[in-house]
Amino acid sequence: MPVITTDRLKLITFTVDMMCASLQGKEAFEKISNYYVDDEYPMEDYKQLLPYKIDRFQQFPEEMEWEGIIIHRDSQTIMGDMGFKGGPNSEGVMDLGYSIVTSYQGKGYATEMAKAMVEWGLRQPRVNRITASCDESNLPSIRVLEKAGFKRVGKEEQEIYWSIAGGD
């Protein structure tokens, strides 16, 4: 992923070296990334995925370009992560996932990131649609996806499914 810059954010690739450092602690992560790291980052759910992601990206380094971290430009602080879960499938679909630490939530950062990722993602070769999902009780995420232009396309139990295509 190239560096993607918005008004308030910088989105960069989350490299294997950075992932390994993040598991060693805040100081190691700050040293290797050259950014401050919010005390809440990485969140526990994401931290549990990191060993899998590290192993996966070591085996398939080309997939790393779809995984990133969210940096607050003014404070130069890592405040979240986002990515397309392995890149486009055979039908040209990518699935967007993201998380932002609590202290940065409710300020429009997730929407700003999602819009930038959709714009960039739909310009990539072999990509014609981006999907996402969230729990029906996660009203902030529902608003993020709506504001980013996603359309609701289905629901299964408590999970709502969203999609946006090039030209939407």
From TrEMBL:
It comes from the Bacteria. The keyword Transport does not apply. GO terms for molecular function: acyltransferase activity, transferring groups other than amino-acyl groups. The keyword Nucleus does not apply. Keywords: Transferase. Residues 30-168 form the N-acetyltransferase domain. This is GNAT family N-acetyltransferase. It comes from Salinibacillus xinjiangensis.
